[in-house]
Amino acid sequence: MSRPPFPPFDTETAALKARLAEDAWNSRDPQKVALAYTPDSQWRNRTEFLCGREEIVLFLTRKWAREHEYRLIKEVWAFRENRIAVRFAYEWHDETGQWFRSHGNENWEFDEAGLMRRRVASINDQPISAEQRLFHWPQGRRPDDHPSLSALGL
């Protein structure tokens, strides 16, 4: 199995890789998302350490069961050879209706087939009011004309 674009990355392919990851995560389909990772992919997400697609699917299933109306934007920070660093923000609310904007950074490492073999994520959650939300597109893929993180001042 392969997942273009392939390393080594340039400005265009790194941005495409980030957008494809964003689109997959905005689908909120754990099985679909997990296919972008190697079968033995290593993750650190906040304080959790995961190994492999099965653990990724279980993690994402739990995540999206508690993070309602999830909407994500990713933006490339840097890239080199088979690695990409992105920054991201996503908005969601919990079961009580409290909204959050979660800000973070991810470091990605890819194999030669374009599958992510390592993901290291650091994330902070910021409580916000419904009026402070910036991500208002319908659930799913972010529209192409929606502002980026930089354009939103995030």
UniProtKB/TrEMBL annotation:
Domain of life the protein comes from: Bacteria
Entry-linked Gene3D superfamilies: 3.10.450.50
Annotated Pfam families: DUF1348
Coiled-coil features, chain-numbered ranges: none
InterPro entries from the UniProt entry: DUF1348, NTF2-like_dom_sf
PANTHER family: SLL0781 PROTEIN
Protein name stated in the entry: Nuclear transport factor 2 family protein
Native source species: Gluconacetobacter tumulicola
